[in-house]
Amino acid sequence: MKDQITQVTLKNGMKVRLKEIHAAPIISSWVWYKVGSKDEPTGRTGVSHWTEHMQFKGTKKFPANVLDKAISREGGRWNASTSHDSTRYYETMPADKIDLALRLESDRMQNSIYNEKEVNSERTVIISEREGHENEPMFRLTEAVQQTAFLVHPYHHEIIGDMADLHTITRDDLYNHYRTYYVPNNAVLAIAGDFNTKAMLKRIRELFEPIPKGKTPPRLVRPEPEQKGEVRLTLEGPGETTFIQVAYRFPNATHPDYFPLQVLDSLMGGASGLSYKTSRLYRSLIDREYAVDVSGWSEATIDPFLYRVTITNHPRRKPEETIQALDAEISKLQDQLVPASEIKRAVKQARAVFAYGSENITNQAFWMGYVEMFSSYDWFTTYLDKLAKVTPKDVQRVAREYLQPRSRVIGTYIPKGTEA
């Protein structure tokens, strides 16, 4: 996968990544800021996500009530999201309308208005969002597992933030966060689609290069100490379904073991739904009626995070029986080499998911910025080659090293009135 892209760094330190794709008259533009929930100290959790919301409240040049109509009137769509490590904004527009998106993003990089009234209005919205999440068993279970897995590192808290902080964060907290991290030297502009690179680069320089370089943003560095043994927790709440989440320590995206673990994930749970019924956990847990649903999930992060197996428990099984069945399947991966044919199929599934997820123009622009948050574009272009090199011995080795009870957290959600 040897994609050719243009890579430039502006005088103010902003990275620009451009990829011409003339398949359709569409352009997708993404601005990425290297700031997320990982950068939030206790007392200001949720500030990155809230800042993302405030960036839609407008500037003097682009008032909030004008923005949405302007994008949709031109046939475009736009949105934003916040993760553990980054915050990103995108517009996908007809090719001849993309200048609106570029003018908008260069303006709100420096001129967003953080009105006190808007801050308080958004506080109500975000607190309501948090309250809605708290009614969902899976949110509560995932949050409890994550808080238990990270006692020191800021991956401890959910991206939306802790309720206590959502009540106390001030307008100045938000504005200072914006001014500290929304600087060109902490940003990546990634654009894919139907344009001429030379002309696009000229326009980018006109709009973004005059923005002054900021101070290098501070980073919250609090490495998580090694876990000294398995931790189990139980939550009780409304509902009729028992959920189990088993979280193992997982290396960051640039660690060499990241790739064999992706193949291991594909073997265990199926690659994001593809050939789900052929996966080992489907056969061992669902076919044998320990579970009614099972999935594995990890993400590419800057610091080591988690690999989570989430199980919807079968109503006729006790959670402990299901956990024992999971452990038996993991033991097989640790004790016996997986047949090469099965590895090949798992790699094929993982490759298919990756290819599908990087197919359209919006996703191609996404990937150019996403990988810059933790690595470089080479990580993307060599991804499939690295998967293809994974061997049965690699899979056995990472299963033995990472899927260890001593470094995992098991959370069980028990619906009220149901015995554990």
Task: Give me the secondary-structure topology.
Elements: E1 6-9, E2 15-20, E3 26-33, H1 47-54, H2 64-73, E4 77-82, E5 87-94, H3 98-108, H4 116-134, H5 137-149, H6 163-168, H7 171-181, E6 187-193, H8 197-208, E7 231-237, E8 243-250, H9 258-269, H10 280-286, E9 291-297, E10 305-313, H11 319-335, H12 340-357, H13 361-370, H14 377-381, H15 383-388, H16 392-402, E11 408-415
Parallel strand pairs: 2-6, 7-11
Antiparallel strand pairs: 1-2, 3-5, 3-6, 4-5, 8-10, 8-11, 9-10
Helix pairs in contact: 1-7, 9-12, 9-16, 10-11, 11-16
Could you explain how this protein is built, in words?
The mean pLDDT is 94. Helix 1 (47-54) packs across helix 7. A hairpin with a 5-residue loop joins strand 1 and strand 2 (15-20). This protein has helices spanning 47-54, 64-73, 98-108, 116-134, 137-149, 163-168, 171-181, 197-208, 258-269, 280-286, 319-335, 340-357, 361-370, 377-381, 383-388, 392-402; strands at 6-9, 15-20, 26-33, 77-82, 87-94, 187-193, 231-237, 243-250, 291-297, 305-313, 408-415. It has 2 domains: 6-208, 2-Layer Sandwich (Cytochrome Bc1 Complex, Chain A, domain 1); 231-415, Metalloenzyme, LuxS/M16 peptidase-like (Cytochrome Bc1 Complex, Chain A, domain 1, 2-Layer Sandwich), CATH 3.30.830. The protein has 16 helices and 11 strands. It is 42% helix and 19% strand. With 420 residues, it is an alpha+beta fold. The strands form 2 sheets. Strands 1-2-6-3-5-4 form a 6-stranded mixed β-sheet, with helices on both faces.
